[in-house]
Amino acid sequence: MRLFVALDFPEDVRRKVRDLIDQVKSQLPGAGWVRTEGMHVTLKFIGYVEEKKAEPIAAALKEINLPKPVEMTFRGVGFFPNERRPRVVWCGVEGSPKLAELASEIEHALKPLGVESESRPYVPHLTLARLKSPEGAGKLVRAASELKLQDFGTSRESEFHLFESILKPSGAEYKRLQTYSFVKGVA
Fold first, then answer.
1. 63, 84, 80, 93: which is closest to 180 by C-alpha?
2. Bridge-partner residues for 147, per DSSP?
3. What are the structural domain ranges in the chain?
């Protein structure tokens, strides 16, 4: 099983991101654009695990507890690793301090189970597209400079989810395995 932990976000934000993709998609026809219904804010990519290991992972995630929900603002467009060598197009996520804290708590909860810790700093984002080649990306990079401050909306989340990522020729499909309320007493 290929697992990850993520936050969801509201439909109004999803709709604005979908509108943006519709606007810029023609500038990079060779890109692999992500379906907006599958978008999420990844907190922890776990990777491949044996099915028997999924139960202890699910149990460890139940123990996550924060005093407040996570607040997020979805803003701007950027590229990984950078604008000179774009491989991924993303929408930025500016989170309250609780967002990084939640990601850190998940890392700590899973480490005793042998889940490898992330070596890079946590950078919340929504993946919009993966570029097979940087060819032709210059036009999109120039267009993105005008979108750096575009606001796509906000979200306040008190639940996160454990997903299975099922790789198919048509792209990854995500199956929600479990939902966790990390702010006890919040519906």
1. 63
2. none
3. 2-181
> Cα 78–82–84 angle (5° rounding)?
115
How many Å apart are CA 5 and CA 165, to the nearest integer? Answer: 10
- pTM score of the predicted model: 0.90
Which of 9, 3, 182, 8 minimizes the C-alpha distance to 110? 3
Name the residue with tokens 């979200």.
Answer: 155
* Distance, C-alpha 168 to centroid of its chain: 19
Q: For the domain 2-181, what is the CATH superfamily, name and number?
A: Cyclic phosphodiesterase (3.90.1140.10)
Q: How much is the pLDDT for 44?
A: 97
Query: What is the identity of the amino acid at 87?
Result: R
Which are the catalytic amino acids? Answer: 40, 125
Question: Token pair for residue 10?
Answer: 């509201």
- The model's confidence at residue 172, banded by pLDDT at 50, 70 and 90, is confident
**Residue 121 has which token pair?**
């700093």
